[in-house]
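Progress note, project year one: complex with magnesium ion.
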Amino acid sequence: MKTQILQIDEHSLRLAKKILTDGGVVAFPTETVYGLAANAYDSAAVESIFSIKGRPNDNPLIVHVHTDYDLSELVTDIPEYSQLLAKAFLPGPLTMVYKSKQRVSAAVSCGMDTLAIRIPSHEGAQRFLRYVDMPIAAPSANVSKHVSPVTAGHVYDDLNGKISLILDGGKCVGGIESTVLDCTNEAPCVLRSGLVTREMIAAVVGECDEYVMKDGERVRSPGMKYKHYSPKCQTVLFNFDNKAEAFKYYHEKISAGVAAYLMCDDSVVQEFDGKNILNLGKTENEIAANLYDKLREGERVADLIIAIAPQKQDGVMVGVMNRMKKAFG
Ligand code: TXA
Ligand code: MG
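Model obtained:
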């Protein structure tokens, strides 16, 4: 299968709709990462997403809809707090989990009785969702366990030959996947951290839990139990307080002929005297936006990525640290 990358316009949208209507899949941009789209009503198409990605079949997918979509088509028992959150953060990188009306294919939620809904803010994503006029089940458009894609080129690198169309909407500005929030209980609960932070949610609705899996408990967001975001080279992660040790390790490896690269934020780059650097940038949002891009750049050039965790560990950095820990094992 030949894989085309096309800018989003009338022609490519028409083609995308035809592919989806015929039971195929297409990749599309969002403000977080690129997604791999199928018609959420089409079981065979949804199942093909799992096989194309090599995704475990107990890890449910998010359904994406445009801003005017009537959510009561798909879900029920929408609590008042989630309406406040929608007003504050949607469209945007916040996915909310509700009780499902079981209208979409059971393959989307892997048989669970809940459904995750996301309304992305990316202009191209909105255009796409409106044009195709169907709820779109989509995971990140990478091979399972690999780093999520933040450019059309990243999608191509993973899925070339396996899908026929990638809609190109430029580099994703968010850079880490959406916050997943369980809205099926009295208080909201963060299942996966992201750019809409627990603090931001609590500021709107007064309280917000954060899910921590206890021993022996059934996972509430199955994605959390899998290895993720791994680059195809060796990796090691140092705490911010151990950065001197990381610098020393870098120089030992370089002396031994290893193509080692240091991944860290800009403040640490200023203190570093080596030349192989994957600079994540200055602000929290820059660090999130650059993380996957730099991991993918790193795996192309490095034998070993030595990462230093950011000093700040709250807010957006909760989501960044969660991905860093998974990427660096
Ligand atoms: O930003 C994003 O969310 C991106 C873009 C493409 O929208 N999508 C994404 O999808 O990251 P994926 O499939 O890589 O991650 C979906 C996450 C998984 O951790 C999954 O377990 C969780 O959402 N999830 C999906 N449906 C769920 C449900 N009904 N209950 C709990 N967690 C759910
Ligand atoms: Mg993913």
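The mean pLDDT is 96.
The chain has ten helices and 16 strands.
No further modelling is planned for this target in the current period.
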